[in-house]
Amino acid sequence: MRPLAPARLLLSCLVLLMALQAQARPQAPATTASESEPRQLTVAALELPSRDDAQWKLRREQVAQLLTDLQPDVISVQQVLQQQGRNPACWLATRLRYSCDFVTADPPSQPLRHGNAMLTRLPVSEDGVTLLHPPGTFSAAGMMRLKLGEALVNIYVARLRPDPDEATARQHQTSDLMTWIGATAEGMPSLIAGDFSATTVELVRSTPGFQPARRNPGGRVEAPAASGGGSSGHGLDVLFQVKHFGGIRQQPILLPADGDLPGLRLGVMATLRLQGDTATTE
How many whole angstroms separate alpha carbon 13 and alpha carbon 176? Predict the structure, then answer.
């Protein structure tokens, strides 16, 4: 075998040195799919005028356009009245191309059914309903497990405004809801969208681990929503688990006045950031 010429020998050494340096260089970690997945969630808590209300008939298209512009991922609608299988919340879901679950304790044979509604544009993997005690007109609570990118998130919808609105009844209903959450959440990030007659201090105390998106403990009472609900106590809001979510902002959802038609306060929308490791759909 002929010895390598000096120039070829030098070139071979340089190539070998570069290869060894590349192997020794720390490699940047590969970007996981979860890092590029959405980590932000927008949730609206609303009350709409009833189906027979003149305000609803005149302004429902404007309400649909307003929510089309806002594009919340989830919409909870409180105090929904359904007649002949129709209600304003599910009409709105149809216009927005969202899914709609009507949550009620009333039997299907009842002509006028009372309940709440859960609307979403995200994929739903599971849902459920429970009855809070003492039972009342709007005491059914609902749950959806949604896919937010690769993560799974639980949304609970409830109207904690018993009739009569007494402290004992509020505590009993809230305790039922928290027990149900404990039995069904399976460690996944959870939040509660609804209408709350308790004061902010009482609400925070009775829902350990959750925080209202509206950060004004002891602050002013919100004006009544379009249907007249939420006129006392904490009102419409979204409660989120502080260990799983960070609150970014909360904003009112207002339909401006239009000529002789007055403005309508429909509710609120919370923007939340999912944080930490969460269960995935895998």
Answer: 75
Question: Would you say 43 and 193 are in contact if contact means Cβ atoms under 8 Å apart?
Answer: yes
Q: Which residues make Cβ contacts (< 8 Å) with residue 29, sequence separation at least 6? A: none
Taking only the tens place, the pLDDT of each residue in 59-86 is 999 999 999 999 999 999 999 999 988 9
What is the phi/psi pair of residue 138, to 5°? -120, 35
H helices of 151-273, in order, are 167-184, 200-206
Distance CA 202, CA 184 (A): 24
Strand 210-212, strand 151-160: pairing: unpaired
pLDDT tens figures, 16-61: 444 444 444 444 444 444 444 568 999 999 999 988 888 898 999 9
Taking phi first (over 0 means left), then psi (-120 to 50 degrees means alpha), and beta for anything else, what does residue 230 get? left
Q: Which residues contact 231 (CB under 8 A, 6 or more apart)?
A: 221, 224
Report whether 266 contacts 253 (CB < 8 A).
yes
Residues 6+ apart with CB under 8 A from 5: none
Q: How far apart, in Å, do the first and last CA atoms of the chain sit?
A: 59
Are 73 and 39 contacting, i.e. CB atoms less than 8 angstroms apart? no
Q: Give the chain's radius of gyration (CA, Å).
A: 26
